[in-house]
Amino acid sequence: MKMVRVIFLVVFVGWLMIWVMLPTKLYKNTWTPNLETKLTSTYFGGQGTNLLLFSFPVMFIAAFGCAYLHFQNRPTHSNHSNSVTALLKRPVLVMAPLGIVSALELIFAAMFVALLIWSLANYLYVSFGHLHMHKEGEKIWEAKFRSVSLRLGYIGNICWAFLFFPVTRGSSLLPLLGLTSESSIKYHIWLGHVSNILFVAHTVGFIIYWAITNQMAEILEWSKTWVSNVAGVIAIVIAVPMWVTSFPHFRRKKFELFFSTHHLYLLYIIFYVLHVGDAYFCMILPGIFLFLIDRYLRFLQSRQRTRLLSARVLPCGVVELNFSKTPGLYYNPTSVLFVNVPRISKLQWHPFTVSSSCNMEADKLSVVIKTQGTWSHKLYQEITSSLDHLQVSTEGPYGPNSSHFLRHECLVLVSGGSGITPFISIIREIISQTQKPNVRVPRVVMICAFKNSADIAMLDFLVPISGTTPSQISQIQLQIQAYITREKEQPKTETQKPLQTVWFKPSPFDSPIAATLGPNNWLWLGAIVSSSFLMFLLLLGIVTRCYIYPIDHNTEQIYHFSYRALWDMFLVCVSVFIVSSVVFLWCKKQNSREGNQIQNNEIATPTAAHGAPWFSGADDRELESLPHQGIVQATQVHFGSRPDFKKILFDLKESDVGVLACGPRKMRQDVAKICASGLAPNLHFESISFTL
To answer: What are the pLDDT digits (tens) for 588-632?
Structure first.
C-alpha cells in the first residue's frame, strides 16, 4: 500500500510541475511541439497535449485512488500519532477572514501563492519580449497594459483548476489527502475569492484598454476564430452576484439568496468555457469532470425516498431523526448527512452531523437538529404534529476515512449549543470500541456550553434509541462539564419535561440509506471515473476526426472556435450521464434486495391507530434510566458562568491530548489560540465546522 501512495505522490508532483513549467518558454517552444504529433492533432485537434499533461494525471489518481480505498482494509484505530504530522496540523494562524489555519495549510497556501506569482512573472516576461509584434497604432504602454490584463485571466485559470476539488464530496482525492468535504470547504472559499479578484481585474483591465484605444465595440464581439469577448462578459456578470452573496455576513443573513445565486454556477461554467476555449478547458477539465460525476450521482441518490423510523423530541426545540440504513453502509463519526423534506421545501438541502455510530447501530443512522432557522422550526412543528409518516430524502453520509481521534490518550470535546452533535457520535463510537478486546480508548472530557438549562437535555442523545447498558457507560472514562451561561441557578425540577419518541409508519416507497453505489462504492466509482473519461476521449476523437478535422483541412473554412468548446462540454456530459446512470441503476437493483430484507425485519416496529403518531414519554425514560443515570453522574453543571478553556486545557497531564471544537466561531478560535500558543505541546487541535 505504501508503494501505491508513492506512485500517487509522484504523479501528483509531476502534475504540479507541469503547472510550474506552463508559463515558461521551455513549455511553449520544446514540450508542446514534441508532444503535438499528427495523431493527436488529427483526433484531438489542439487539445491533445493539454489532455495528456493536465487531465490524464489527475484522472489517473482519481480512478486508481478509488481502487486503493476499496482494497484498503477498514480503517484501524492507531494508538500512535506521528509527531511531525501533529506539529504540522497545529494551528499557527487564527484571524479573520482566513479563520483557523494550520502550519501545513499555511505552507501549501504559500506555495500556491508562489505558483501564481511565478506564473504571472513568467507570462509577463515572455509577452513583454514580443511587444515588437503589438498591433499597428498601439503604443507600447497600451500593449503592456493589455498583456497584464490578459495574463491576470491566465492566473485565474490556475485557481479554477483546483476550485472544484474541495466541493467534490464523493471523490477519492479528498480521503487520499486525509480531508473531508466539510474541512475542505474553506479551500473552495479561498480559491473562489482569489479567482474572482483576478477575473474582475482581468475584465476591468480590458474594458479600460478598449476605452482608451477607442475599441469598446470589442466588448460585444463573438469571434469565430478566437475567444468570445461577450461570453467572458456574460460569465463575469454571472460570477459577481455569486461572489458578493458568498461573503460571510451576506451568507449568514441571506442564506437562501446565497444558496439560489450559487446555483448559477452551471451558466457560469458554460460561458467561462466558451470564453477560454477548448484548449484551456482541458487544463481545468479534471476538477469539472469529477465534480460533474459526483453531482450527478448525488442527484440520483437524492431522488430516492429515505425510510424515517422515528424521531426523539426534546422540549427545548431539538429533534433526533432516526433513519433506516443498510448494514453494509460504513461511516465514521463526525460524518455529515444532507437532509431534504419536500413538505417544507423541495429545493433546500441542509447538512447535519451524524450522531449515531455504525458499530453500535448497524441498521440505523441518526442526526440531531436544533431549531435555529425557518426550515428547522417548520420541521420541528411537523414532527410534533399528528403525522404518521414524513417523506424525507437524504444524501450522504460524507465524512473522514478513519476514526483518528481514538489515537489520543485524552480527548477534549469543546462544544457550544448545537455544536455538541458531532461529539454524540464520537462518544457512541468510543462506547462501542470498549466492547472489543484489546482496544484502548481515550479518556473523554466534554466541555459544553448552553444558553439555557433546557438545552442540557441534549445530553440525553448520548444514549442511542436502541439503548445501551450501564456497564458500557461505566467502561469509558467520561467527564462532562456543562455550563449554563444565561441562568444563575438551577430551575425547579417540575418544569423539566421528558424526552418523547415519535414512531412513523413505514412506506413501501421508502428505502434505507445506502452507499450510492452499494457496498463496493469505491470500486464502482473508480469504474465510472475511468470508463466515462475513456468514453469522452473516444467520442472526442470520433467527432474531431470525422467532423471537425475535415472542415479545418479540406475546406477554406475554419471550424468555429466556440463550437469546439461546446462539443467538449456536450461530450463530457454525455459520457458522465451514460456511464453513471448504467452503474447506478445496476447497483440500485442490487441494493433493493437488501432493502427489502431490512423492511421485512422492521415489521415489528411499534404500531398505533391510523392517523396518529406513537408518543411515549415515561416508559422510554424508564427503559433508559440506568444508562441515563450514568450520564448524569458524569456531568457537573455550572450556572451563570463560562468555561475557562485555558485553565481546563493546561491542567490536562496526558502527553497526547486531542482537542476538538465545534460551535460558534469565536469559541473555536479562542480554543485554537490556546492550542497554538505553544505553552502546552501536548494539545492537538481540530475544528469541526462548515465555516472558517
So the answer is: 877 666 655 555 555 444 433 333 333 344 444 444 454 566 677
pLDDT in tens, 468-508: 555 566 677 888 888 888 877 776 654 556 678 888 888 88
Cα–Cα distances in Å, from 126 out to 22, 119, 130, 180, 283?
Answer: 12, 11, 7, 40, 20
Sheet holding 308-314, edge to edge: 364-370, 318-324, 308-314, 500-503, 614-616
Q: Residue 195 — very low, low, confident or very high, per pLDDT cuts 50/70/90?
A: very high
| Confidence class for position 7, pLDDT limits 50, 70, 90 | confident
Q: Which triple of cell numbers denotes residue 647? A: 485553565
Residue with grid cell 468548446, as numbered in its chain: 565
For residues 75 and 459, what is the distance between their CA atoms, to the nearest angstrom? 28
Residue type, position 648, single letter: I
Q: Is 374 left (phi over 0), alpha (psi -120 to 50) or beta?
A: alpha
37 burial level (CB within 10 Å; 0-12, 13-18, 19+): exposed
Does position 89 have pLDDT exceeding 90, yes or no? no
- Quote the CA–CA distance of 163 and 16 in Å, as a whole number: 15
The span from the CA of 507 to the CA of 189, in Å, is: 40
Cβ(209)–Cβ(146) below 8 Å: yes
One-character DSSP codes across 215-227: -GGGGG-B-SSS-
At 122, give phi and psi (nearest 5°). -70, -40
Calculate the alpha carbon distances from 309 to 322, 363, 589, 603, 633 in Å.
6, 11, 23, 11, 30
Range 288-309 average pLDDT: 91
Beta strand extents in 294-416 (DSSP E only): 305-306, 308-314, 318-324, 336-340, 350-353, 364-370, 393-398, 410-416
Please give the pLDDT value at position 2: 67
Contacts of 113 (CB under 8 A, 6+ apart): none
Cis check for the bond before 397: say yes or no (omega within 30 of 0).
yes
Quick one: DSSP state of residue 348? -
User: With pLDDT > 70 as the criterion, what percentage of the chain qualifies?
Assistant: 84
pLDDT confidence band for 571 (50 / 70 / 90): very high
Angle at 551 between CA 546 and CA 557, to 5 degrees: 170
**Residue 45 has what pLDDT?**
56
Angle at 467 between CA 462 and CA 473, to 5 degrees: 55
Which cell numbers hold the place of 256?
A: 437562501
What are φ and ψ of residue 99, in 5° steps? 85, -140
Q: Where does residue 436 rank: exposed (0-12), middle (13-18), buried (19+ CB within 10 A)?
A: exposed
Cβ atoms of 613 and 390 within 8 Å: the answer is: no
Residue 466 has pLDDT above 80, yes or no: no
pLDDT at 623: 40
Which alpha helices (DSSP H) does 213-341 contain, by range?
Answer: 229-244, 248-253, 255-262, 265-276, 278-283, 285-302
Q: Is the pLDDT of residue 268 over 90?
A: yes
**Omega of the bond prior to 97 within 30 degrees of 0, cis?**
yes
Locate 72 and state its grid cell: 484498503
Among 381, 377, 299, 287, which residue's Cα sits nearest to residue 338?
Answer: 299
Neighbouring residues of 587: CB distance < 8 A, sequence distance ≥ 6: 516, 517, 518, 524
Residues 6+ apart with CB under 8 A from 13: none
Contact 192, 163 (CB under 8 A): yes
pLDDT by residue (tens digit) across 339-390? 999 988 888 888 888 988 888 888 889 999 988 878 888 988 888 887 888 8
Short-list 467, 392, 389, 422, CA closest to 626:
467
